[in-house]
Design a protein that fits this description.
The structure is a single chain. By secondary structure, the protein is an alpha/beta fold. The protein contains 12 helices and 8 strands. Helix 4 packs antiparallel against helix 5. It is elongated. 20% of the residues are buried.
């Protein structure tokens, strides 16, 4: 009996979690009350409190929606048709929801809501809303601002959503989309005293700029055609390239190592060979010292590149921001040769003498080796300043 009572209590807790339609009704949340009542009535079509809540909430919601539609139509504003359509859509959806549980039997009467055909009114409202958005979007197109083109695109999109075959809507969408995009050209300017080939420019701009694009901003590294309209120029100015001279120096080290070299007899004070407790001669290890001269050759060379990324707005011909960039690369080769007994060397030193002396890289090799680090610096500067390209 105790188990049955516990199960019943748990069931009540679960059912209460479905939500009270009466509470929602009391708070004036009529659509919430309708949704909760329908959910509860699907489980228990005889729930009187949910039947009454549904009836009352439905009547009030319909009355409020019809009043709102009458007011908006009487007001006669062209920009109200979208709101009118949304209300009709809500009324239609609500009606279809309630029909899943009606008719309902309550005491001696049947509760059922008359079916209303909203579709004709919805079509009219959608068409009128599309007309308004189309006319307003065309006005926005005449303002000549990026923000206006983008808003026009959003409103032309609503037109197509409401009336898919609206007059030339695809052309207007394409035009507003094109005019609303901000285009930024990234280019390399070598202001240093070092000339490098054009391929190096292309390599520096190989930074995956497409991932920087957003819905309304596109980055380019080349001008696609003569009619391409640019809004921003991003100058990557290489101002200084420094390549150090070839540097080579040597480090001489004398390596010594003591190794076992046979044995000798241990003598007593009289010069006789000492014996152990068993009468055997006592021997001790004999050592010798190995020597090897290790001559290390160290070759080094360094390169540094410094510059700025300059963000320029073309409309007002002003520099929005400059961001410093820098990169460095280094070359080092350590080789060695040995004079003497190589057995005096440790394992690391033996590996060192196997390393061949590498030739010094050319100045351009050093500059090119900076490209990866410089590309990262350029990309990070672009990434940090995406917010100023509007």
């Amino acid at each position: 009996m105790k188990k049955v009572s516990t199960l019943f209590f748990i069931t009540l807790l679960i059912m209460s979690g479905c939500g009270s339609s009466k509470k929602s009704l009391t708070r004036g949340n009529y659509d919430e009350a309708i949704n909760r009542a329908v959910n509860n009535l699907r489980k228990n079509p005889r729930s009187e409190k949910d039947i009454l809540s549904l009836e009352q909430a439905m009547n009030i919601a319909l009355e409020q929606d019809n009043e709102r539609i009458r007011y908006l139509k009487t007001e006669g504003r062209a920009d109200s048709w979208d709101a009118i359509y949304q209300i009709y859509q809500k009324m239609y959806d609500r009606q279809m929801l309630v029909r899943t549980v009606t008719p309902l039997n309550y005491k001696d009467r049947t509760i059922e809501f008359p079916y209303v055909d909203y579709l004709a009114e919805m079509v009219i409202a959608k068409r009128n809303a599309a007309d308004f958005y189309f006319a307003h979007a065309k006005q926005l197109m005449n303002e000549g601002r990026k923000e206006s083109y983008r808003q026009a695109y959003a409103e032309f999109s609503r037109v197509k959503e409401y009336v898919g075959d609206y007059n030339q809507i695809n052309d207007y969408l394409e035009e507003s989309r094109y005019l609303g995009i901000s285009r930024a050209l990234i280019r390399i300017n070598n202001n240093s005293l070092v000339n490098f080939p054009q391929e190096y420019d292309k390599e520096l701009l190989n930074i995956g700029i497409s991932s920087l694009n957003s819905n309304w901003v596109e980055y380019y590294t080349t001008i696609l055609n003569e009619n391409m309209e640019l809004d921003y120029i991003i100058n990557v100015n290489i101002n200084n390239i420094g390549v150090s001279p070839d540097q080579q120096f040597e480090i001489d080290t004398l390596v010594k190592k003591s190794v076992e070299d046979g044995f000798e007899y241990l003598l007593d004070s009289r010069g006789n060979v000492r014996k152990d407790s068993l009468g055997n001669d006592i021997k001790t290890p004999k050592y010798k010292t190995l020597q090897c001269a290790l001559i290390q050759t160290i070759r080094q060379k360094e390169c540094t590149i410094q510059g700025v990324v300059e963000f320029v707005e073309l409309r007002n011909e002003r520099i929005l921001r400059t961001e410093p960039i820098a990169a460095a690369s280094s070359f080092e080769n350590i080789s060695a040769r040995a004079i003497g007994d190589v057995e005096a060397l440790n394992a690391q030193q033996k590996e060192m003498i196997k390393t061949a002396t590498a030739p010094f890289p050319t100045d351009f090799d050093m500059i090119f080796s900076c490209s990866d680090a410089l590309k990262i610096s350029i990309r990070e500067a672009l990434q940090r300043n995406r917010g100023i390209i509007l």
